[in-house]
Predict the 3D structure of the following.
Amino acid sequence: MDNLIGNTIIRLQETESTNNYANNQVQTNDYPEGTVFLAYSQTAGRGQINNKWESEPGKNLTFSILFYPDFLEIRDQFMLSKVVSLGIRRTLAQYIDDVSIKWPNDIYAGNRKICGILIENSILYGQIKNSIAGIGLNVNQEIFRSNAPNPVSLSILTKKQFDLDALLAQLLDGIDHYYKLLCSGNNKAINQEFESHLFRIGKIYSFNDETGPFDGTILGVNDIGQLLIRKESGEIRAYHFKEVEYINTPLNFKRQ
Ligand code: BTN
């Protein structure tokens, strides 16, 4: 089957943020679904919750994919995040070990962040009009200067340099694969695979919520994309983004 994602690639030498650029463009132009806006350099790359996204010009992949998931209910919007995360995870797993999806949508290699995803939905009359999925993948950058926690890149992990265009094509194929599953209503397969690759699922770790630090086990995510954690008390809580933090303490004697 033909690809839905990446048939049109708009290459920019420099822009503030590919998410902003894509968002401005879709207001006035008709771009097909799956159009990719890729920048060699971003002057104001954005991360989640107003963070900056650090990326040395020409070293990494910074791009945004335009989706028109009009078949998706607003309450199911986290499915798109799963699709994008799974596509990236699958591609990276060809090159490095221990690639997982850190809820809600970071890609981790071991305990280090290799990729961040920023999905922005335009909602009109209670329906998703378009979604812009911004992806920042650390590829050939070796030194990170910002205070981002634990950044890592493909080249740090493999001691090799990567061809950015070839890697982009693989990532787009990966995302295309899972997006087609979503388009065909195969949510079950997506959910199962997402949970099987969820960072720290199924073992006891330390977290922090509004009640303070606690130990608990990630059970998965619910239908609306909240993280489910069973606390040691037995209580199961569902968290929205930023309501819970992972704590990186070494495992103590109690833990598996
Ligand atoms: C995060 O982990 O906080 C999300 C980072 C998302 C970065 C990408 S780079 C391409 C796109 N344009 C942006 O300004 N941000 C996203």
